[in-house]
Design a protein that fits this description.
Strand content: 5-15%
Helix content: 40-55%
Shape: elongated
CATH topology of the largest domain: hpI Integrase, Chain A
Distance between the termini: 105 Å
Order of helices and strands: HEEEEHHHHHHHHHEEHHHHHH
Oligomer: single chain
CATH architecture of the largest domain: Orthogonal Bundle
CATH class of the largest domain: Mainly Alpha
Strand order of the largest sheet: 1-2-3-4
Structural class: alpha+beta
Number of strands: 6
Number of domains: 3
Number of helices: 16
Length: about 400
């Protein structure tokens, strides 16, 4: 069929057809694809190295018939010279993408510029969370990450029970794109208008029976994870703090663990270490960890801080038959246990390095007492309590007393 503006206008699919292709009699290889919905687009058909190829060249609504014919003629010339027009089109498309700001570049610049004064831990976690969520878009133009994609990801995360992770990632994304819009790097944010996820405050505290089951199941696991779980029970510190415990953070006699400011997470910028007295049971746990010559006490792969929490936690739940809890709940369990043993609230908060009203205002500014002796007595007593319930003995009293 000889394609003309009039014949093109009248071309339609027949009933039941999804689409049809009509080829031009004047220029060999020029085709027009017509769909059932009425859209029309030009294509170029040619043979290259014995294989038939078809390359879309543009919509009929934006490309004239004359221009379409010129493009097809140019393709025929390329084929005659041994050039594959399809490969050329792919290369041009990739080059065009390279000119756009990639999502990973935007997030990286945000971290280096906007977050330069934030803790390294926060910066690392923000980038990690966004990459984990949108990795397939990381090297693609930032415009390809649409609001619909972000919403679908959020909904999928909520259905998977990952509300806390989704909430944090959305906050990181909103902050990154707000910065990018302010610096006129992008015109729109795919996170704009997406409501924050309301998180229900968790108040799970493990019973003594559950704590014993978790302790025993952790002991049956080889590798770092089991020791980390027991360390969480004995110290009440945060998961990633324990998972990243380094040998140079420990006193020579293992009596104290000093977390440097860069690893402390309590919502404040700190300049001093957080000292955690280690009970005899905790010292034995550390001593039992194999020294592979690396820096970390409970290493992950290649002497990196331990990772792979979700998988190992699922296995721990199966082994212990204790479900419906998070590793962070061990921290709350320790705090509750200390309070039940009569430990002063200020001491419990000092152990947990927790920021609350008791350490705010004038108290937070002027009170620098570190409760070192009280912290040690409390954690020693807590470790004895854990040992007693694991061994099936009656805990020896519930009040922590300090010698004069």
């Amino acid at each position: 069929m000889k394609l003309t503006e009039k014949t093109i206008e009248n071309l339609k699919t027949t009933q039941g057809q999804k689409d049809r292709i009509v080829f031009d009699d004047d220029v060999r290889g020029l085709g027009l694809r017509v769909t059932a919905s009425g859209s029309k687009s030009y294509l170029s058909q040619f043979n290259f190295q014995g294989k038939r190829r078809r390359v879309p060249i543009g919509s009929q609504s934006t490309l004239s018939l004359a221009d379409a014919r010129e493009i097809v003629k140019r393709h025929a010339g390329d084929v005659a010279r041994g050039i594959d027009p399809a490969a050329v089109r792919i290369a041009e498309r990739e080059a065009a993408k390279a000119e756009h700001l990639a999502l990973g570049k935007l997030i990286g610049d945000w971290s280096e510029i906007r977050l330069r004064d934030r803790r390294e831990r926060y910066r690392t976690e923000a980038v990690r969370a966004l990459r984990h969520a949108f990795d397939r878009f990381w090297d693609r133009p930032v415009e390809e990450l649409t609001k619909r994609i972000v919403i679908d990801w959020r909904n999928s995360s909520l259905r998977a029970g990952k509300a806390s992770m989704a909430s944090a990632t959305l906050k990181y994304g909103k902050a990154a794109f707000s910065w990018a819009m302010a610096d006129e790097l992008v015109a729109l944010s795919p996170f704009a208008g997406i409501e924050a996820i309301e998180l229900t405050s968790r108040d799970r505290v493990l019973t003594d029976k559950e704590l014993v089951a978790v302790w025993r199941a952790a002991g049956s696991r080889a590798g770092s994870f089991g020791r980390i779980v027991r360390a969480l029970i004995l110290t009440g510190q945060r998961r990633d703090e324990v998972g990243g415990m380094a040998r140079d953070e420990l006193a020579a006699d293992l009596s104290t663990w000093s977390l440097p400011p860069s690893r402390v997470k309590n919502g404040r910028k700190v300049t001093t270490s957080h000292d955690v007295p280690l009970a005899p049971a905790m010292r034995e746990l550390i001593a039992s960890a194999p020294d592979l010559g690396g820096r970390h006490v409970f290493p992950g792969l290649h002497d990196k801080p331990f990772a792979g929490w979700a998988t190992m936690k699922e296995q721990l739940d199966r082994d212990s038959a204790v479900t419906g809890w998070h590793l962070h709940d061990l921290r709350r369990t320790v705090a509750t246990g200390l309070q039940q043993m009569g430990v002063r609230l200020e001491v419990t908060e000092a152990i947990l390095n927790h920021r609350s009203s008791t350490r705010g205002g004038i108290v937070g500014v002027y009170q620098r007492f570190d409760w070192a002796a009280e912290k040690r007595a409390a954690l020693d007593a807590w470790a004895q309590h854990v040992e007693a319930i694991v061994e099936g003995r009656e805990p020896a009293g519930n009040v922590v007393r300090l010698s004069a």
